[in-house]
């Protein structure tokens, strides 16, 4: 697969928020499981403390909610990351344009793709809070870095509008979708289960929503798309490719089954293609044309 003028051996990458922000762990996972790319947790210019636990819950089969709150050690950590068998996507965030631009400049030293998080629902002032100024953010970032810049959007009613503004400002592609804000109540104490209150819903529950938004995005703009949201098997990978995604992020499935699932999905995907006599290119965007 080819996206943002970069070649990938297959479409499987690790989504943001899954791998601990420890360089040695990232390098070991890359070496042992060989995803096509690893996306860091969202990194900010200066460290952020995570919300108090509980921050992650499983509320249904394959369905999770989290409100970690973009807790991270700061963008400087990327200087210590050296991946040999997979590409590095660096997710960045901030609560103003200058912070994000500065983070992008630091990320550029190691990143193959810089991914701007304009959609996390779990930290006031960050993520979805900056989506209204995405055009300004992208324009400024693109004027300061040369590496490809993607914008991660949420599964909202105005997703197409936000993506359009990002692309108009020069974004090289779109990552879709982030988590969907939800709420779980403890029915013994009748208070939110997560310490933050609300949290981002991920996993199997949001797969159909992700598919619909990706298809709409591709039909409207035909951008390079990284598809994320509820992929648990090769079938969901095929679905995302068929509606216009070129790369597919694995997230909740890794929380559910461990990193071995990367190889299992890859094996099943290649077996399916060989059995059908197809290539990945034959699947790409086929469902958009029907």
Considering the chains and any ligands shown, give keywords for the structure.
4-stranded antiparallel β-sheet, single chain, 290 residues, TIM Barrel, alpha/beta
Question: Architecture, CATH level 2?
Answer: Alpha-Beta Barrel
Radius of gyration: 18 Å
Task: Count the E strands.
Answer: 16
From the N-terminal CA to the C-terminal CA, the straight-line distance is: 22 Å
Number of domains: 1
SSE order: EEEHEEEEHEHEHEEEEEHEHEHHH
- Helix and strand content put the structural class at alpha/beta
The CATH topology comes to TIM Barrel
Largest sheet: 8 strands, parallel, barrel
Strand content: 15-25%
Uncertain runs with pLDDT below 50, 5 residues or more? none
Q: Can you identify the CATH class?
A: Alpha Beta
In what order do the strands lie side by side in the largest sheet? 3-4-7-8-9-10-15-16
What do you see in this structure?
It is a single chain. The chain is globular. The chain has 290 residues and is of the alpha/beta class. A hairpin with a 2-residue loop joins strand 1 (2-3) and strand 2 (6-7). The protein is 32% helix and 21% strand. Helix 3 (134-142) runs parallel beside helix 4 (159-168) and helix 6 crosses helix 8. The chain has helices spanning 23-33, 97-107, 134-142, 159-168, 207-221, 234-242, 252-257, 260-276, 280-283; strands at residues 2-3, 6-7, 12-14, 37-39, 56-60, 63-66, 87-92, 113-117, 149-153, 173-176, 180-183, 185-186, 191-192, 198-203, 224-228, 247-250. The protein is built from 9 helices and 16 strands. It has one domain: Alpha-Beta Barrel (TIM Barrel), CATH 3.20.20.
């Amino acid at each position: 697969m080819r996206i943002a003028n970069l070649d990938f051996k297959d479409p499987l990458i690790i989504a943001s928020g899954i791998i601990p922000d420890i360089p040695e762990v990232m390098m070991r996972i890359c070496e042992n499981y060989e995803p096509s790319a690893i996306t860091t947790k969202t990194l900010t210019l200066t460290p952020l403390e995570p919300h108090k636990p509980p921050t992650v819950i499983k509320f249904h089969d394959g369905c999770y909610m989290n409100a970690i709150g973009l807790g991270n050690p700061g963008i400087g950590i990327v200087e210590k990351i050296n991946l040999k068998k997979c590409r590095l996507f660096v997710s960045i965030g901030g609560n103003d344009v200058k912070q994000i631009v500065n983070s992008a400049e630091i990320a550029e030293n190691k990143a193959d793709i810089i991914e701007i998080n304009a959609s996390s629902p779990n930290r006031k002032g960050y993520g979805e809070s900056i989506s209204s100024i995405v055009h300004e953010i992208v324009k400024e970032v693109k004027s300061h870095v040369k590496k490809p810049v993607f914008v991660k959007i949420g599964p909202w009613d105005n997703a197409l509008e936000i993506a359009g503004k990002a692309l108009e400002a020069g974004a090289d592609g779109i990552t879709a979708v982030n988590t969907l804000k939800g709420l779980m109540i403890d029915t013994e104490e009748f208070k939110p289960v997560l310490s933050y209150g609300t949290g981002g819903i991920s996993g199997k529950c949001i797969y159909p929503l992700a598919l619909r938004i990706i298809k709409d995005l591709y039909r409207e703009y035909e951008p390079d798309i990284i598809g994320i949201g509820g992929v648990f098997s090769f079938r969901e990978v095929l679905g995302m490719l068929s509606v216009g995604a070129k790369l597919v992020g694995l997230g909740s499935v890794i929380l559910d089954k461990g990193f071995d699932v990367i190889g299992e999905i890859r094996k099943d995907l290649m077996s399916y293609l060989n059995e059908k006599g197809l290539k990945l290119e034959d699947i790409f965007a086929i469902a958009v044309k029907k």
